[in-house]
Design goal:
349 residues; alpha/beta; DHBP synthase; Rossmann fold; 16 strands; globular; binds threonylcarbamoyladenylate; binds magnesium ion
């Protein structure tokens, strides 16, 4: 199959044609990679059972891992799920945006989309291209991240092309994703919500709207996900890992830098926060230093993480060193992704 990459240019008539073409592919049961504000998604109709199967096949993903269903307006949740006051409280504050809410599903959503669960994860993305496509196709869109299963999520169209060339019909290139990590996934509880996957919408932001906010144990300790009843099936698979081995080091910055200094072998690399780049001088050829973003900027560091891990693979690195980020507040999403990229192993020095 030839994979067509069509760019959104801002020229109205051109962009309308790109969206119309993608909408037709969706209505015919095909799949299209689309930009969202978080990461690129692999989108198919959430109403046609065959589309979900194609998505699983393209990703090489186990089909018991449910997909997120994307809508263009919060009220469209009524068509696919049983909503609640809590849903509308969350929607009013955070939608459109990077929040996904798990709700009891209606019958029109096939079990193939939800991995056999009787709930469905609902998200109204903010990205105007994604929303225009949902509107133009007339279908809610099932869309997981557009990477091969287990690989870091794609934040540019060229990341998607790398994983999906020859496998899907079309990629819409809408530029770089502004957030760079996947949406926060929550499930309403009796008196609040439980965070199943951390993202840009933090625990503190949710608390203002949702009351009691719990965080699933597997979020901070991915090894829990194997042992416990898995609330969010996606959390149980090894995830976000590049081919390179990620060695995660729990140490203060100075100690981390001196550890990296001793391990600057050919074919490896290290993530270093912007302020500390100047501390790594005399770097030998064949060793790559990645600017991880400003130390205190959880958003900048989260936005860069997946593209750095992909870059490490493009360079053919065998080992990548990274400092364990804080796990509190806005850093929780970054912490969760990087610990999983390292397969849960943390080296305390
Ligand atoms: O930002 C995002 O959410 C991106 C973009 C494309 O929208 N999508 C995304 O989808 O990350 P995916 O399929 O890679 O991740 C879906 C997550 C998984 O952790 C999955 O287990 C969870 O959502 N999930 C989906 N449906 C669920 C359900 N019914 N109950 C509990 N967890 C669910
Ligand atoms: Mg994913």
């Amino acid at each position: 199959m030839k994979t067509e990459v069509l760019k959104i240019t801002g020229e109205k008539e051109h962009d309308r044609k790109v969206i119309a073409k993608a909408a037709e592919i969706i209505r015919n049961g095909g799949i299209v990679a689309i930009p969202t504000e978080t990461v690129y998604g692999l989108a198919g109709s959430a109403l046609l059972p065959g589309s979900a199967e194609k998505i699983y096949k393209a990703k090489g993903r186990p089909s018991d891992n449910p997909l997120i269903v994307h809508i263009s307006e919060p009220r469209e949740a009524e068509d696919i799920a049983y909503t609640s006051d809590m849903f509308y409280r969350l929607a009013e504050r955070f939608m459109p945006g990077p929040l996904t809410v798990v709700l009891p599903k209606k019958d029109c959503i096939p079990g193939s989309v939800t991995g056999g669960l009787d709930s469905v994860a609902v998200r109204c993305p903010e990205n105007p291209i994604a929303r225009a496509l949902i509107k133009a196709s007339g279908h809610p869109l099932a869309a997981p991240s557009a990477n091969k299963s287990g690989m870091p999520s794609p934040t540019t169209a060229s990341h998607v092309y790398h994983d999906m060339n020859g496998i899907i019909e079309m990629i819409i290139d809408g530029g770089e994703c502004s957030i760079g990590v996947e949406s926060t996934v929550v499930k309403p509880t009796e008196d609040g919500v439980m965070i199943l996957r951390p993202g840009r919408i933090s625990e503190r932001m949710l608390r203002k709207v949702a009351g009691r906010v719990e965080v699933a144990a597997s979020v901070k300790d991915p090894s829990n996900a194997e042992k416990e009843k898995v609330e969010s099936p996606g959390m149980k698979y090894r995830h976000y890992s590049p081919e390179a081995e990620v060695i995660l080091i729990d140490a203060p910055a100075r100690k981390y830098i001196s550890y990296v200094r001793k391990h600057m072998e050919n074919g490896s690399g290290a993530l270093v926060t912007t302020e500390h780049l100047k501390d790594l001088t005399g770097v030998p050829e064949g060793f790559t230093v990645f600017d991880a973003g400003k130390t205190r900027s959880a958003f900048e560091r989260s936005k860069r993480i997946f593209s750095i891990l992909r870059r490490a693979d493009e360079l053919g690195l065998k080992t990548v060193y990274a400092q364990l980020p804080p796990s509190d507040g806005a850093f929780l999403a970054l912490y969760n992704r990087i610990v999983r990229a390292a397969g849960g192993r943390i080296l305390k020095i």
